[in-house]
Amino acid sequence: MEDHALIGPQRLSGQDHRVANLLADRIAHRIADGEHLGRVHAEARLAIEAARRTRDRATEIIVASQLRLVRGLRHETPPREAIPVWQSTDVEAEGRLPLRFRQAQFFQHLYAGLAAFFDDDAPAAARRLRAAEALAAAAPEHTRPSVTFFGAIAALRSAPSGGHPSDVAPAVFADIEARRDNLERWGRAFPGAGGKAMLIGAELARLRGNDEAAARLYFDAASAAHASGQLMVQAIAWEFAATHRRSQRGADAARDYMSRARYCYGAWGAHAKVQRLTMHGGQMRRDDDEWAAGVLHRRHGMGIDLQAGMRAVQALSEEISLDKLVERVVETMLVQAGAQYGVLLLMKGGEPIVEAIGTVVLGKVLVEASRAAPTEARLPLDMLGKAIRGRRLVALADAAALVDPIVEDTRNRRGTRSAICVPLLRQGEIVGALYLENHLAAGAFTKDRAAFVEMLGQQAANSLAAARLYRELVDENERRAETEAALVKAREDLARTAHLTVMGGMAASIAHEINQPLAAIVNCSGAGRRWLAREHPDIPEAMAAFDQIANAAGRTAEIVHALRSLAKQAPASLAPLGINEVVVSVLELMRREIEERQVRLTLALSTSGKTVVGDGIQLQQVVLNLITNALEAMADTPLASRELTVSSGVEGGYVNVEVTDRGGGIDAATLGCMFDPFFTTKGTGMGMGLAICRSIMEAHGGTLDASSRIGHGSTLRFRVPMAARI
Asked: Is 91 exposed, middle or buried (0-12, 13-18, 19+ CB in 10 A)?
């Protein structure tokens, strides 16, 4: 049953609603892909604000669940503002909710399960993930790998440790095996699913007591996750490998694996998890921590600061503006790599384009925007080609190896000693490339330094791809807004043009009608003068003549006022009026045309005394349009058969008016779209007349429709609500 108190008023502005839903979906992708949590957090804050502005309760709950998970991993507790929580836990009741709210409940269970998993509470994680799986039918398809993976891992971690494989029910193993098979199959469509399948295989091997296979699969899973840019899965794999090695009394390997896990968690942005791994009693002693730190500093002995690198990753992940991010990437990579010259290229249409060039001058990084094709003067094109085609890092230890005279000249001008070209990969797709030069020493880019630069390049690729998508989203929203505004203006212009076209058709009839009261004024004024000029003035006759003059003048003023209102398209002036009077006034205007077309007019008006609330001018326009169409429909009808019937009546609280002709009729295809804008069967028509008439009727709370019999004519009818009696 729909919970109206929970849903609240749904006054959704289209722009914010689209942005909130799109961001929520993208955040779900980012969490599943293990992208940096800083960027996820920044987008989630934008999404929840957009959802709140539109009072989109379901999306707000989804993003709140994402925020709660991200803040827990980043150690940002307590939350900076209230985050809504879904209260119900009755899955059967949830099944009767609208789809978007079932999705909200699914995501809340999913992210609560992930939070419990990263808090090392495997039983709670398994319960929450089972609840999410019960709602999986309502969930987006792209969430299936995450639910399958974490559900399997939580179940395996909840199994008794240190026991015999027979302690685990066979059905549990069968379920986990099926999940692994699904992940291997999804690996073709969802990058990174293959590494998750390996990690499940490692856990299965551990639980079955096959320690050698488990150790190998943990390493393979971490390598596969690194190749696909899955920092989250890579961190989990190294953590599990460390705990497994520790259980096998492999202390040195356990320390190494745990340091890698902490590094990957830190690069992912999960600083709270890093703290727990560091401070957990019995899991990581202080001397182990110091030993791991020493290993890292020895491994990156060229002055690379691990903490500075993690801060650089954080800075890259939280920048959302593409132009600012490009500048920050170049600056960060030059500083972290110890380079003096760098070129950042991004792929556009399958070709690399130089986005920015960075140069270190007197200790300061200067970045110049470029957006030009790469040339040998900018960087060695052979290195760039190898890096992009091979999707691997290409290093040049000694610039003397460059023998091309053009490159040689460029190298001499810049003083190049060593160089490196790093492909920027995101989930296996090439995003761009980064070329760096060192002008101080040959062999400056050692294996360890190159690996560090490659890791930073992976984070830069994720951030650049995300910033590009964000710019495309903003640009698309701006284009939509401009298109919608232009469309509204075009519709208004077309409606006005069609309106003036209809008014032009009325002009001749109105001018003819004005001639009648003007002639009456002239005649009556002459008669009055004659009555008064008699030897014995006939005062009563003269007064009657003057009354007729006043009436004729008033009628003329009404006609002129109506014409001016139509020309200006004045706002609707609603007032009680009789529909019969509206019909008769239009027929009087059309009398000359009806007579010229030799059409026989039949009136059957039976709404005397019944009133409607409406704009008399607009209702006259509708009646005029229907009568004009009826007359035109009988242009080819024999004179003896030309008959126009106008009738009115009351039915169910509505006043109905019907205009029937004896023309050739309207075929079914035309009948179905004759009220659509721009549809016309006339050679010179615009197709707006009936569309405007229907809009007028809808604005009055009424309807306009048509019926026809081929060869027997057509009937157009409208109905307007009767005015309430006071």
From this structure: middle
